Each structure stands twice: as C-alpha cells, then as structure tokens.
Amino acid sequence: MTVARQQMPWDALLKRGEGEQLVAESKERHQDALTEPLPDRLHPELRLALERNGIEGLYAHQADTLESAYQQDTIVTTGTASGKSLAFNLPVLDTLAHDRSARALYLYPTKALAQDQARALHKLGLPHLRPAIYDGDTPREERRAIRGRSNLILSNPDMLHVGVLPNHASWGDLLANLAWIVVDEAHTYRGVFGSHVANVLRRLARLALAYGTEPRFLLASATIANPVELAERLTGRDVALVDRDGAPRAERRIAMWNPPLVDERTGARASSLGEAADLLADLVEQGVRTICFLKSRRGVELIQRFTRLRLEARGRGDLAELVAPYRAGYTSTQRREIEQRLMAGELMAVVATSALELGIDVGDLDAAICVTFPGTVASLRQMWGRAGRRNTGLAIYVAGADALDQFFCRHPDEFLTRPVESAILDPEAEEIHLAHLWAAAYEMPLTAGDEEFFGDAWEPAARRLVSMGRLRERGGRYLPRGEGFPAAEIPLRSASPDAVAIVEAEAGEVIGSVETARASSAVHPGAIYLHMGSSYEVSDLDLESRRALVRPFGGDYYTQPKQETDTWIEEVLDHREVAGCPLSFGTVSVSEQVTA
Predict the structure, then answer these.
(1) Residue 305 to residues 74, 323, 556, 559: CA-CA distances in angstroms?
(2) In the chain, domain spans
(3) Please, which of 198, 265, 388, 574 could form a disulfide with 585 given CB 3.0 to 4.6 Å?
C-alpha cells in the first residue's frame, strides 16, 4: 500500500533550488514523548497549579531532575524547547510552597529570558509565589520592595556582580534564606564571560555561607559535549547530570543552501543576505512563520528591509508589515513589543541576532534560517530548534562567502554530522581570578577558609593584590585598600560596559544604544544607522557625554565604515608546531582605525 507524503508549503521552494543552491538535505526523525505521572510528593498547591495549566504529567527529564535536585547539585541538558524550565521550576516551587521563608535566585544571560520566565511563573497563579525581576531596567523606587517581599528573584550575572554582592547587607534576607540558585542557559557561560560568571557564583556561595545558608545549584543547558565539566567549573562543586530527554520532537527537514555563482572565473557568489531575504519572502508568502538568524546587527536590519521590499514588489505589502527585526541595541520597550507580537502570533517573520537563539518563548514557528555558520554546532542546533516544535519544521543553513562556509558546502556530510562542541572556561585565569578576589575582599575580608571557594591559589593571588596596592593584609586577613568599588571596574562581558545613547534629534527621544567600543564605527557623523526598518543619518557623536544625534534619512543607501586593524606581537611566551603548522602564544597589541 502506497502512503502519500504530506505536501509542505516549502516543497516548491526547495525543488527550485535543486541542482545549484540546494547543496544537501537531511531529516531529523520525530520522537514520541516519554512521560511519568506527577509525583505525590509535590505540594498540593503546586499540583493544583500544574493541573490548572494543563500539566498532568512530566517528561522523563523533568521527573529525573526533580528527584536529583532534592539530593544534590544538578544540571539538566536536553534539546531546545524540551521543557527544561519546568524541570528546574518544580523543585524550587515545591520548596517555596513548603517553606514560606525560603528564597530562590534565577540567573539568566539576557533580560528577555528573565522577562519570559517571569510571565510563565505569574501564569501558574501560585498564591505563595512572589516573583520579581531585578535588573538594570528595574525602577529604583521598586528595588527596596523587591528585596523585602519577593521570594523568587530573576536577575542576571551582571546585576548580581555589581548590584547585589557588593551591597549584600541590603540583601541579608535573601542570602540568609537562599535555598536555590538556578543558572539557566548554562552553555552560554563559556570563554571569558563564563570564567567571570564562575567567579561571581563562587562569591555568591561564599556570602550565602556567611549568612548561614548553603543553597543548592540547579543548571539547565542546551546539548553540549561536556555538561558536567561545565557545571562543575561554573559552581566549583560536584554536579549530577540529567540528560534523558523525554520531550516529543517533530520531524525536521534540514537544507544546506549555497548562493548561486555570479562569476565563475573568481568563484564569487551572490550575497548571502539577499539570498536569505529571497527565502524569507518566499516562506512568508506561503504562510510559513519563520525566524531568521545571523550574527551581524546591520545584517539583521538589511535582511528585514530586503524582505519587506521583495514582498511589496510582489504586491504583498500586508505581509511586509509582519516582518520585524530584533537585536541588541533596541530599547527595552521596543524589545518587549516585538516579543509580545511574536508570542501572540501577530508576526509572520522575525530577523534576529542570537538574542532570540536562547530559550525565550516565541510561539509556534515553522521554519528557521541560519545565515552563515554561527561559530558552533551547539549554537546552530539551538537556532534550528526554535522552529517545528509541534509540527514538521524546516531548518535552512545559508552559506556565506568565507572559506569555512564554502568548505561545508563542498563537504556537506562533515557539516550535517558534526558533533556539538565542549563549553570551555577557566575560573582561575590569572587576571580574572585576581579581579574577583579583589571584589570578594570588598564584600568580606579574605581568609584561609576561602580556599573552599577560590582554590589553593587564592593566597598567592591575594599577596599579589597587596603588592599592586589593591589589598592590605592584617593578621592573615586581606582587606580592601581605599574607597574603591571593585565590581564597577570589572566588566563580565568582553564588550564595553558603557553604551552610547542614540537620540532622534527632533523628538529628543532615545531610540536605541550601541556599545562605546562600537560607536566610532556604527554611529560616526555621516553614518546611516539602520533601526527597526528605518534609516537615520548621524549628525553628531559625542563620546564624552555618550550620545549620538540622528535624523530620519530618506535615501536608499546605507554606509559601511572603512576599518584598518594593525596587530603587533609584543612578546612570544610559548611556541610549538602542530601538524606542520606553527602556533605561538603571547602578548599582542591591536589598534583599530575607523575612517568614515
């Protein structure tokens, strides 16, 4: 008996690409749910709230996490949109229901994720639950009330670092009753950022112990190669693993797409941005709700613009209005509006940087496009996982012109079968470790007992801080020197901690922001700044007052600065040869000149 295959709205699009653009295809099979009943041990109020929200059973990893979390620090790692939030919410909410004095702290790498989780928690309608967001957008007049009454604080590592730990006396009630520390999207804490966050978590655990508590850590991560190692390096503790993914998964069709050749002699290909806009316009016209990812903020604005122009040229201006950009640099109000429209199903497509790669609820999407390789397979899988959660989905990788993308197109099997990477961090990296010991001494004098948190290298590092004039030693205790506020001088992320406000000159309204380090290239005088589908010409940039003035621009072009980067090798500290390739490690100086 022949079974007819269900026709999908993207079939014709992929058929047209066969022979040149469509390099390779594969499929991810669907997976049935593996469930368990709600455990009897849950507090009656929590069980009732879950049932009221249509949750009558748990996926296998949610049940496993609940059991593991009661016994030890735990990390749960499963696929995108598999219900990891409920997995860590259950033990926390159960504790808060049984012990009305208990507190919990949730940490997210982005403000949008905290907002999303706060909405989900409020939706549960638990009478004992008092969640609140505490981040840079929280009005100052509300902060004291949040410290006093909220039993679940949602924040981020940056705010914990500069707003909570140095002011721990104001957070005594939280620290003295802290039962849980939840670290969501743990896979994002890698490299320099992850090494900083690992030290911030050690400072938090140190202060909690001083206030008489030893909170348990719960971490959630996308699929990576080394979840336990990552969790243990982040927390400095032994951590149990839960990875039995019980969530259902719809079938997903994967397509590798290479822009067509435009010059056979040079091998030049059409723009990946234009190609992505063509695909996005086609999908939107077929009624396919789509998310399109790429790394460049300017690229986000351009693809959104190109897509709208293509739809308008086809007489579908109604659909053009339903394609929105989303990236860092928008105001919090602008971001919330886009998030809400996306969740409500009011948008047909969104073009985004990795800001939407993470676990924020963006509703039901059918397709995900990734423009150029995002850097890691783990990130690529996260992006693709945003689509096809409940029904058959489409994932497209649009190659760029660089050597890596073209290598993948010549060797598609290497791309399609590539394993996820490990997340690497080093909490004892010398400069990072020194900085956080300095901050920790400001919070509470360093003593011999701090080896538990900062390792056996803490005292030599503390003595170095004494020689640098940052600490002083008194009877085996290391105290801060001077009136400084160390945490304010330690940015956790490699980007500049300061931002330049972008002000629409006629209205006097702040429409966005850009990091100070990027301002000279992004908003120099004469630059055309693209923002939410509109163009603005920069009339003035004042780095001292951190303000760029812009005016609406009606032209049909945009600008790209000429940047010249020079690198000098200052000192070679180590040198070796691997597979015939010379590798050197050392100190370099980098200068960048921007020519408008």
Answers:
(1) 44, 9, 11, 15
(2) 11-30+250-416, 35-242, 430-488, 499-560, 564-595
(3) 574
Range 430-488: architecture per CATH: Orthogonal Bundle (1.10)
Residue 497 has pLDDT above 60, yes or no: no
| Average confidence score pLDDT of the chain | 91
Architecture of domain 11-30+250-416: 3-Layer(aba) Sandwich (3.40)
- Only one residue has tokens 């396919």, namely 288
pTM: 0.87
Q: 459-491: per-residue pLDDT in tens?
A: 999 999 999 999 999 988 999 997 778 999 898
Question: Considering the domain 35-242 in this protein, what is its CATH number?
Answer: 3.40.50.300
C-alpha 132/C-alpha 122 separation (Å) is 10
Do the domains 430-488 and 35-242 match in fold? Answer: no
* Single-letter amino acid code for the residue at 298: R
> Collapsing DSSP states into helix, strand and coil, what is residue 424?
coil
pLDDT bracket for residue 305 (50, 70, 90): very high
Q: Is 36 helix (H, G, I), strand (E, B) or coil?
A: strand
The answer to whether the beta carbons of residues 500 and 522 sit under 8 Å apart is: no
Tell me the per-residue pLDDT of 385-417, one tens digit each, with 9 for 90 and over: 888 777 889 999 999 999 999 999 999 999 999
Residues 558 and 528: their CA atoms lie apart, in Å, by 5
Q: What are phi and psi of 558, to 5 degrees?
A: -135, 165
Q: Are strands 178-183 and 103-107 parallel, antiparallel or unpaired?
A: parallel
**3-state SS track over 528-595:** EEEECCEEEEEEEEECCCCEEEEEECCCCCCCCCEEEEEEEEEEEEEEEEECCEEEEEEEEEEEEEEE
What per-residue confidence (pLDDT) applies to 5? 55
How far apart are the C-alpha atoms of 486 and 202, rounded to whole Å?
16
Q: Where are the alpha helices (DSSP H) in 385-429?
A: 403-410, 412-416
